[in-house]
């Protein structure tokens, strides 16, 4: 158990909206071990960011968080004083956001902000902090680090800013990094560089990494384990090989069919689609959240809430009552047995 | 290796006999930008000598990093901005003397962000019908009929006619943008990152729609995208842009099977397909980000090029065309290589 960095059990997040209560995260569970990269993937609005913010205790003011367990290195991080949380944040666990400008202060130099990231948590001389800042900037591939320290965030390109954010997250040597869409706003070439770097640093510093993205390509390439979310719930989870090699949930499968793959999909051929829209998360959804869009829906799908269940003898879990029969039939439309 | 010949920038000879829909010859666009308070303005060459020809019915993909000049080129092709130099022809006519409306009848844009490209205060029906009203000469009954036809063509339910953009999903908004672009029956559509702001399940619907419309209406597309997998799926030919210039241009299969320019290679390596076990490749592209105000000497790609050699930081590479397409890199220029070896 000493390798367990993060445990999330039955996490729920709700927010008041004019029409009622929006249940953004509904019973999400996963864990991260040392040296693992866990990817949370799903389409816009499925609850990825709020899951991350709930772990960091950074939810919007009126957001409500409930969990059976939420712990970092075996210690609970719910119901602890804000002083304890703010020490954990940026010290033992750090977060990297999609748009680095939102977390960099435009009024201070890069150097100042990197140093403060360490000095806030450790009693070390500023010169030591500066030394580490230079070292980490070089480590994340920024040349002429000494000069960069004197620059302001707006003087850097998006890719460089994201590298600075990664260096900043590493200042205290945290056990866990949560990165929410860290490369979504970047060019594909820069995205590949940043992900390559993150994977390398994660191995080198032996951290746990939670990477949140809507890009299945990124996930397939970098994840140890994958958590697929749909409308507030985990619908499938397993290793990257399990989830991408043999997807068991109709949503995961549908998503993969939507993506063109050079050399595999034929030019000009129709791509798969998932017709329909994500259901509203205001109020309760009876049964399977995907039922309204699933080509395999039967009456039983909406009669009772669908649990996440494991395939025999593995940790590959799926939230679909027809998963086994669909697997056997190779996802052909099969008549209901009932 | 195939024989390559240096040439002056001219439209590449095309195998197909279809006449060109659009031709750009040595097109340049310069902006004067200020570098800060009290500092002199400096010229920024956003597009720097681009030669590109698109045949009728062809789909050409345009790829390259953010800021390399794709949108600037698109705006010139749409007649929304004059080039600083060079010539543009659309359907055989010089764009320079044409009226804005005449250009709009031939070529229409679909932009990236379906959230900001639609007027939030206008209804769906009014947005789609606007180009008809601009061209003039249609009764409001005719307009309504044409709008309904377009909505059906792009898969928008009629009941959305009186809705406002804020009431639509991202995919529906992009369908509105496509309907608006097509209502005047243009011959060509320039799509600038048409699916970048969309989720994959919506992206595939829009890509399917663009393919269907192309077949049904015989459209010509210029498809700008940072997603090379999307370009591979849609385009017959691909043009790769770097800091204002086209550095490689060839048919899609050749480009993906045998990329020649080192920048194209790095771009292809960056395509992350959902195939587990392949890892995140090292693109070998240095972190040095290009500053368009301070163009590198010689080959503008040399500070990041893993294959640079002798002449790269001093001699500007010239466009080389052969059966394999066009490439602008000394590695394929026998004269320069001989000189360097001597
Ligand atoms: N401050 C807020 N107030 C009300 N609703 C919110 C708030 N923040 C998020 N939501 C809603 O909660 C749901 C989940 O949001 P979240 O941002 O976690 O999704 P996401 O998967 O990260 O989306 P995206 O990929 O678009 O960032 C969405 O329906 C969203 O509209
Ligand atoms: N109106 C303008 N004034 C000054 N610079 C501009 C203007 N439009 C574009 N640029 C600059 O021209 C270059 C190319 O821009 P753009 O065509 O928007 O690239 P892309 O679409 O590939 O992101 C960039 O360096 C950009 O900052
Ligand atoms: S439970 Fe039913 S509706 Fe839901 S994914 Fe499975 S088959 Fe489809
Ligand atoms: S000319 Fe030289 S620097 Fe430029 S792309 Fe070719 S090899 Fe690289
Ligand atoms: Mg998000
Ligand atoms: Mg652009």
Which class best fits the helix and strand makeup of chain B? alpha/beta
Order of strands, main sheet of chain B, comes to: 1-12-13-11-10-4-9-8-7
Name given to the CATH architecture of chain B: 3-Layer(aba) Sandwich
Count of DSSP E strands of chain B?
13
Number of domains of chain B: 1
Beta percentage of chain B is 15-25%
What fraction, in percent, of the residue positions of chain B are helical? 25-40%
DSSP strand count of chain A: 13
Mean pLDDT of chain A: 92
- In N-to-C order, the SSE pattern of chain A is EEEHEEEHEHHHHEHEHEEHHEEH
Query: What is the residue-averaged pLDDT of chain B?
Result: 89
Which CATH C-level class of chain B is it?
A: Alpha Beta
Widest sheet: strand ordering of chain A: 7-8-9-3-10-11-13-12
User: CA-to-CA gap between the ends of chain A?
Assistant: 43 Å
Strand fraction of chain A: 15-25%
Poorly predicted residue ranges of chain A: none
Principal-axes shape call of chain A: globular
Bound molecules: adenosine-5'-triphosphate, adenosine-5'-diphosphate, iron/sulfur cluster, magnesium ion
CATH topology of chain B: Rossmann fold
| C-alpha-based Rg of chain B, rounded | 21 Å
How do the strands and helices of this protein lay out in sequence?
The complex is a heterodimer of chains A (338) and B (342).
Chain A: E1 4-17, E2 20-33, E3 37-41, H1 48-56, E4 64-66, E5 69-72, E6 75-76, H2 82-88, E7 93-96, H3 110-119, H4 126-139, H5 145-148, H6 158-170, E8 176-180, H7 188-205, E9 208-213, H8 216-222, E10 225-230, E11 233-239, H9 240-245, H10 250-258, E12 309-310, E13 317-318, H11 323-329
Parallel strand pairs in A: 3-9, 3-10, 7-8, 8-9
Antiparallel strand pairs in A: 1-2, 1-4, 1-5, 5-6, 10-11, 11-13, 12-13
Helix pairs in contact in A: 3-4, 3-6, 4-6, 6-7
Chain B: E1 5-6, E2 20-34, E3 41-55, E4 59-63, H1 70-77, E5 85-90, E6 93-94, H2 100-106, E7 107-110, H3 124-135, H4 140-153, H5 170-182, E8 188-192, H6 200-217, E9 220-224, H7 228-234, E10 237-242, E11 245-251, H8 252-257, H9 262-269, E12 320-322, E13 325-327, H10 334-341
Parallel strand pairs in B: 4-9, 4-10, 7-8, 8-9
Antiparallel strand pairs in B: 1-12, 2-3, 2-5, 5-6, 10-11, 11-13, 12-13
Helix pairs in contact in B: 3-4, 3-5, 4-5, 5-6
Residues 261-262, 299, 301-302, 305, 307-308, 312, 317, 329-331 of chain B line the site of one iron/sulfur cluster.
């Amino acid at each position: 158990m000493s390798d367990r960095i993060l445990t999330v059990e039955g996490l729920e997040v709700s927010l008041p909206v004019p029409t009622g209560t929006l249940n953004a995260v509904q019973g999400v569970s996963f864990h991260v071990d040392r040296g693992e990269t866990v990817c949370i993937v799903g389409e816009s609005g499925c609850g990825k960011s709020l899951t991350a913010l709930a772990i960091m205790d950074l939810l919007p003011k009126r957001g409500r968080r409930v969990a059976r367990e939420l712990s970092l290195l075996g210690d609970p991080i719910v119901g602890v004083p804000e002083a304890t949380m703010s020490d954990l944040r940026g010290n033992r666990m750090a977060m990297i956001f999609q748009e680095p400008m939102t977390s960099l202060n435009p009024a201070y130099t890069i150097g100042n902000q990197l140093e403060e990231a360490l000095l806030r948590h450790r009693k070390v001389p500023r010169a030591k902090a500066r030394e580490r800042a230079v070292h980490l900037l070089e480590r994340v591939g920024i040349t002429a680090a000494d000069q960069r320290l004197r620059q302001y965030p707006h003087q850097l390109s998006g890719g460089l800013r994201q590298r600075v954010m990664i260096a900043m997250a590493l200042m205290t040597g945290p056990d866990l990094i949560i990165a929410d869409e860290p490369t979504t706003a970047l060019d594909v070439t820069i995205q590949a560089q940043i992900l390559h770097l993150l994977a390398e640093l994660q191995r080198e510093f032996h951290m746990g990494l939670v990477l949140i993205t809507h890009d299945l390509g990124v996930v397939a390439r970098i994840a140890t384990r994958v958590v697929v979310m749909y409308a507030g719930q985990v619908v499938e989870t397993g290793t990257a090989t399990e989830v991408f090699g043999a997807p068991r949930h109709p949503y995961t499968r549908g998503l993969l069919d939507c993506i063109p793959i050079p050399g595999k999909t034929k030019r000009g051929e129709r791509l798969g689609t998932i017709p329909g829209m994500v259901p509203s998360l205001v109020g309760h959804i009876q049964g399977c959240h995907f039922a309204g869009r699933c080509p395999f829906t039967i009456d039983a799908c909406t009669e009772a809430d669908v649990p996440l269940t494991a395939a025999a003898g593995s940790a590959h879990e799926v939230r679909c009552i027809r998963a086994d029969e669909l697997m056997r039939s190779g996802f052909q439309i099969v008549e209901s047995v009932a | 290796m195939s024989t390559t010949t240096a040439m002056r920038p001219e439209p590449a000879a095309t195998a197909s006999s279809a006449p060109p829909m659009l031709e750009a010859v040595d097109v340049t666009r310069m902006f004067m930008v200020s570098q800060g308070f009290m500092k002199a303005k400096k010229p920024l060459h956003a597009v720097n000598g681009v030669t590109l020809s698109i045949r009728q019915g062809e789909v050409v993909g345009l790829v390259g990093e953010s800021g390399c000049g794709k949108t600037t080129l698109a705006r010139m092709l749409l007649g929304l901005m004059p080039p600083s130099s060079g010539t543009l022809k659309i359907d055989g006519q010089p764009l320079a003397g044409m009226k804005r409306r005449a250009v709009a009848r031939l070529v229409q844009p679909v932009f990236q962000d379906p959230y900001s490209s639609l007027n939030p205060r206008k209804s769906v029906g009014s947005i789609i019908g606007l180009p008809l009203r601009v061209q003039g000469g249609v009764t409001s009954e005719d307009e309504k009929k044409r709008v309904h036809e377009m909505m059906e063509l792009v898969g928008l339910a009629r009941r959305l006619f009186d809705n406002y953009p804020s009431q639509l999903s991202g995919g529906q908004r992009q369908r509105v943008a496509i309907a608006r672009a097509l209502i005047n029956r243009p011959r060509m559509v320039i799509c600038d990152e048409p699916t970048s702001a969309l989720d994959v399940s919506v992206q595939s619907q829009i890509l399917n729609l663009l393919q269907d419309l192309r077949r049904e209406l015989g459209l010509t597309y210029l498809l700008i995208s940072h997603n090379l997998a999307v370009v591979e799926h849609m385009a017959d030919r691909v043009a790769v842009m770097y800091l204002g210039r086209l550095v490689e241009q060839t048919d899609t299969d050749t480009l993906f099977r045998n990329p020649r320019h080192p920048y194209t290679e790095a771009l292809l390596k960056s395509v992350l397909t959902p195939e587990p076990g392949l890892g995140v490749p090292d693109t070998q592209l240095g972190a040095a980000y290009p500053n368009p105000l301070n163009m590198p000497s010689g080959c503008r790609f040399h500070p990041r090029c893993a294959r640079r050699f002798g002449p790269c930081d001093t001699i500007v590479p010239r466009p080389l065309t052969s059966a394999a397409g066009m490439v602008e890199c000394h590695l394929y220029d026998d004269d320069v290589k001989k000189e360097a070896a001597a």
